[in-house]
Predict the 3D structure of the following.
Amino acid sequence: MTTTVTDWRDHFIAIRSNKIFEMVVISIIIFSALLVGASTYNISPNWLGVMTVLDISVTIFFLIEISIRMAAERRFLNFFKSGWNIFDFLIVTASLIPIDESEMVLLARLLRIFRILRLISFIPELRILMNALATAIPRMGYVVLLMFIIFYIYAAVGSFLFESINSVLWGDLSISLLTLFRIATFEDWTDVMYETMEVYPFSWIYYLTFIFLTAFVFLNMMIGIVLDTMQSEHEKFNREEGIGEAGEVHWIKENSIQMNERMERMEAMLIQVTKQKKG
Amino acid sequence: MTTTVTDWRDHFIAIRSNKIFEMVVISIIIFSALLVGASTYNISPNWLGVMTVLDISVTIFFLIEISIRMAAERRFLNFFKSGWNIFDFLIVTASLIPIDESEMVLLARLLRIFRILRLISFIPELRILMNALATAIPRMGYVVLLMFIIFYIYAAVGSFLFESINSVLWGDLSISLLTLFRIATFEDWTDVMYETMEVYPFSWIYYLTFIFLTAFVFLNMMIGIVLDTMQSEHEKFNREEGIGEAGEVHWIKENSIQMNERMERMEAMLIQVTKQKKG
Amino acid sequence: MTTTVTDWRDHFIAIRSNKIFEMVVISIIIFSALLVGASTYNISPNWLGVMTVLDISVTIFFLIEISIRMAAERRFLNFFKSGWNIFDFLIVTASLIPIDESEMVLLARLLRIFRILRLISFIPELRILMNALATAIPRMGYVVLLMFIIFYIYAAVGSFLFESINSVLWGDLSISLLTLFRIATFEDWTDVMYETMEVYPFSWIYYLTFIFLTAFVFLNMMIGIVLDTMQSEHEKFNREEGIGEAGEVHWIKENSIQMNERMERMEAMLIQVTKQKKG
Amino acid sequence: MTTTVTDWRDHFIAIRSNKIFEMVVISIIIFSALLVGASTYNISPNWLGVMTVLDISVTIFFLIEISIRMAAERRFLNFFKSGWNIFDFLIVTASLIPIDESEMVLLARLLRIFRILRLISFIPELRILMNALATAIPRMGYVVLLMFIIFYIYAAVGSFLFESINSVLWGDLSISLLTLFRIATFEDWTDVMYETMEVYPFSWIYYLTFIFLTAFVFLNMMIGIVLDTMQSEHEKFNREEGIGEAGEVHWIKENSIQMNERMERMEAMLIQVTKQKKG
């Protein structure tokens, strides 16, 4: 009996690592994305039925595909050891929420959209890119915290001072934060400023310092990331080359000092030899 | 007979590589561009006739010029081996579409505009620049794909949720994509947001995450390109120098180790010689 | 008696350097920030009382905390030798302004907001970041001066020419400076331009040259900072390594020349020895 | 008589190179700028008289100052050999245009503004900065030309297609160029697009390709400049150090090869010597 299971598993492994199978899955993912896109247009009732059938077919295909990949694992739980597998599993099972019940339709539809994200787990270049983006997040951490402190202080000040002028923009802290984000993107920020300048003529100081601070911190963050990335790239390059140029140069220098000493000794001995010859 | 043909060809080659001829062609290209520019202004009927004559002259000049360059080739088809020649040929022949038929006027006019692009094939610096830009495209490929996936998902979500609020902005997937591109350029994006926030008070999450994601991916793309370009510049520099500093340093280190061994042997022998002398 | 004082001081030092104590202070700072944030919302009178009590508690806690850190110093004035301590002291004492007097309420509230800045003096990473930002300011100095000269000239010209057209935007020098800052952020700058172009059709030259100049200077500033930072990073790296690669390579080259000379001498002597042997 | 002239000249040279004199001139330049700034505000008639007197005083001071600097030159024409001196001379003499004639008032005022530019010729750091900016211009040349070609083609196409829709934005080539510049700064570009999309539903292609092209070329220009600056900085650094690391490393490698050969010869001789000894 176990041999039969192993046979089956070998079949599944063969299917999983098959290039054509991979291509089919990527095509179905793109087709599924187009299906979701098409459903945003006004569609005649005739086509609606076809699309529902197609949608169910896609869902079933994904179920079969993920089952094959699960069955191809030696132990069932190994499948969940890879983050991308868990990601795939969640997206596929989320699609199983029935589309019929009217109140769930919107949620089911939204979940179907995220099936396009499976492309990332199937195209290795995109996976590398995602990992690169993920490693960029921690080094931004404290700058984002500093940025948030600046936003928080300005939002509180804005809320205290300008609430009576325009409660739609400065009603409370969260609304003020949104208004400040808008100002940081330069979106109609002068309208906001001119309004408050009628009551507080010097409130332009508030806006200009805010813009300078956020632009300044942002600029430094960008440069910081560029430098950080360059340095890590450089180190990685050195590590890959197995050497590290600076270290090697240092080694050569140290070695030259020893060579000098040795050659001094050798020259002294040679002088001695030639002298004895003459003597 | 063939000698006469060769004679003629030599004449054409002489014309083609003549600096003055090149200058004349560039001047005519610029003049042709000015002619197209002038035709966008209101012109008195008197001048209209003059301009038509000038336009026909330019077209004829270009025909003669490209014929000379074709005739200067040993074999007629060699001319089409260069991408820039095909580019020139297409632009010149496209101008031959008759300007008289009223319905074709607009198309003929539009095609005339592209004659200014011939400047690129005539000025070597612009050609180098174009090649540099072209090489930058592939390394952007997957980032653009990732960007498109983000846009697609947000467009589908936006279309599902906000279509009932404002069908002009969120009517279907393509309209939503255009609206998102507008938001990515910060163009009146708060108006779009405030409208949907009246129905979904938490829809600011949709906009802020979208802006953060696109800005973040874009920032990383930019840094990626800078790093990529720098690394390739560095390698090119090394290749041009014929060396590669890091490699040379490594060679020197390896060689020093051999030198050490040899000198050790030599010292040993010298010690032996001096000992024997004394003995 | 002095021993008792020393005992107490040791206690305070122990508290100050206690990790848990630090965590408690950071939590209280964040809690105080949330308290300020909460006060921007409409709060029922019941909660208002609670919040006043909490606010007083926070103020008292900060007083005790800063007293402990003062008492932990050997000499009272040492406390003020650190810039961050002065910063902390000012923020804490500023909170002591009574909240009761109606006219002072706004000021007291504003000062309370700045208590969130104490986070910077408590989180080492943020302190490093602030120092990094501070070192970036001087190298921007002259570029900012140049930028200001450009703004000043354009503001004066704008004020002279366009005051009669729209005194709200070009009334005097300071208003013009604000309008130019708005144009530099691309915020509805075409509205400003189209208005003046009705009187001075060539005023687009004014706006386009201004945008080009500011963008150009800004771009160069950014690149300048990147280069400056990279160079200083590079030097720092070299200093940390205790070497400086370029210098070492130079040393090796000079040393090789000396080695060549010595080896020439040695070879000459060896030739002499071998000749004598044969003779 | 000539001795007296030389005496006077020495006096002038002493004045010119005097630090206090320099400070005074800088102060007067700043004061003159403030005077121009002040004249944009509404001023009571009493002060107007004072300002006119001050303005005349400043003009006279500048005349004396530039005369001293001229007189300090050995030969009068040497003064005009420095570009900054010509610049100073033009600005000072331009101020001599009489302010009384009503029609010249505006021009005289405008010329007075440019006196602030004299700051650049007096502060060495600003002069260095200006030179750095000037050297950045040529390397941008061809990219700006390419950018202009893109703008020109899109402006002509826009003018042909959209003139009938909105002649205020697309009336002729120059107006279209201005509209495209506006679109490149993302300023209300969607309003322009939505208007033309009513007639040509696919005109979004026109706008999106334009934004992509300009952004793409601009991005590459920026990176190009960064790389260019970095490379030239690097070379300058090497030249200043008097070495050039890569070249030195290469020298060391070549030298090592020669050293190897020599040592091989030496070892061979030593082996011979030791053998003879034993024999």
In short: The two ends of chain B are 97 Å apart (CA to CA). DSSP finds 13 helices and no strands in chain B. Chain B touches chain A through 52 residues (CB under 8 Å).
